[in-house]
Amino acid sequence: MSFFSETDLPGIGKKISCTTYSREKVVLVIHHDGKRELYIMDKDGDPQANVTLLDEEARRLGGFLSGVMFKPKAVEHLELALEGIRIDWYKLEKDSPVIGKAIGGLGIRKKTQVSIIAILRGDHFIPSPSSEYVFQEGDTCVVIGKPERFKDFLDIIR
């Protein structure tokens, strides 16, 4: 699973950093004028390759990357299997009633039919957290389930 982070660049635009499943780092800088700079970083954090795209080029490439223009057969089968299921991210605010509590004691899966598949804590990724995992302020829960059940999940964490 990959990890994304966003940073505002005042006067420039936004920087999106991604560490891919294969632990490669990709950085995208989106300028306010629509220009995009895409960097592939080496293990020391220095750019090893980059490309600059105009807005139209970036949108067209994005269409291919997202599967709008061409969808591999494997993805079509996966979409059928996951129809009606969504993955979403929810950050725990400082006043969340689950902070300081273990996942197992809350009965989230039983009450909501939503499963926590990972926790993002700062720069740390915790896949399949155990029932003993204790929530902390700022944790981001990566959850999977039917979208209509996410409200039940939100009722527990908010």
- Percent of residues in beta strands? 35-45%
What's the quaternary structure here?
Answer: single chain
Any idea of the CATH topology of the largest domain?
A: Alpha-Beta Plaits
Order of helices and strands: EEEEEHHEHEEEH
Please work out how many helical segments DSSP would assign: 4
Number of domains: 2
Low-confidence stretches: none
- Lateral strand order in the biggest sheet: 1-2-3-4-5
What is the global morphology? elongated
The major sheet is characterized as: 5 strands, antiparallel
Query: What structural class should be given to the helix and strand makeup?
Result: alpha+beta
Distance between the termini: 26 Å
Mean pLDDT: 86
- CATH hierarchy, class of the largest domain: Alpha Beta
CATH superfamily of the largest domain: Regulator of K+ conductance, C-terminal domain
Tell me how many strands there are: 9
What's the Cα radius of gyration?
19 Å
Which architecture of the largest domain would the CATH scheme give at its second level?
2-Layer Sandwich
